[in-house]
């Protein structure tokens, strides 16, 4: 099924415009607005592409809270979908992300809070293609729902203008769109350069940027920087189960010790390649924290429901210095969305907030542990 592996990339920045389900021949048609341009003047195309899923064996919608801090039991899914008929869904356009035979998407399906089955064939399921389509929502408040489509089928047929669209042709059209995008901005830059005032302003801005941020500096390299030598996880009494706290401690300990295996065990990336190198894992881990390290000092709250859990912890974020600012310590609150995976708990998501900026609640009392950072 390697011929289908390029479809997710071709749907970059695509929007789902609608779908049609035909149970009689087990065909699901999903319509996308995506990035395409004509390769030459001999063709006229629009941006619409239909993906036709053939010989569907399973088709369902599945939902979870959009915010991992929300308990699934707090949402009345039945009432929310009482009148909806998704079989001929023609709702508001939504950004769509398609996953094909993805372990991450499969796990999201297995741990979903609510499923709405549209079709399921009787007997054993042996379809080779497992598809998940994530529909992004407009806001991320506590009432948001993460909506996804789950499909298993035998084949996927791209269609454009009522005719089959080969992946080779689609890929050419996708590249043509990006080439046009690049040419557009190149032309804008050339027009800007013709204005002497703009040219002078751009030059001054560019000089300032390079003066402030050297291209190469060992002091600004997270691998060479030494953050405070303090315990990354040192909390007071709590009733939070040790098994929920273990991945949090391992994650932050691994980040300080450059133990990338410990970091990835605590917060796995299920779709990593089997041949991923240590250097690639290291780069990925460092990118996650962007020059910051975290020292957990207290647990504010926690809950556990089935294979989902949440821990809200409070501590200090230490940010390394940059070309303009010195190193800084700031109180931070981290919300960990946890999942039970293969008999152990792992970090599935992390959300950061700072009382100083109003994105997290202040502690009821000034914590004693903050004194060590003054």
TrEMBL record:
Residues 189-208, 220-240 are annotated as: Disordered. Residues 191-205 have a biased composition (Acidic residues). It comes from the Bacteria. This is Uncharacterized protein.
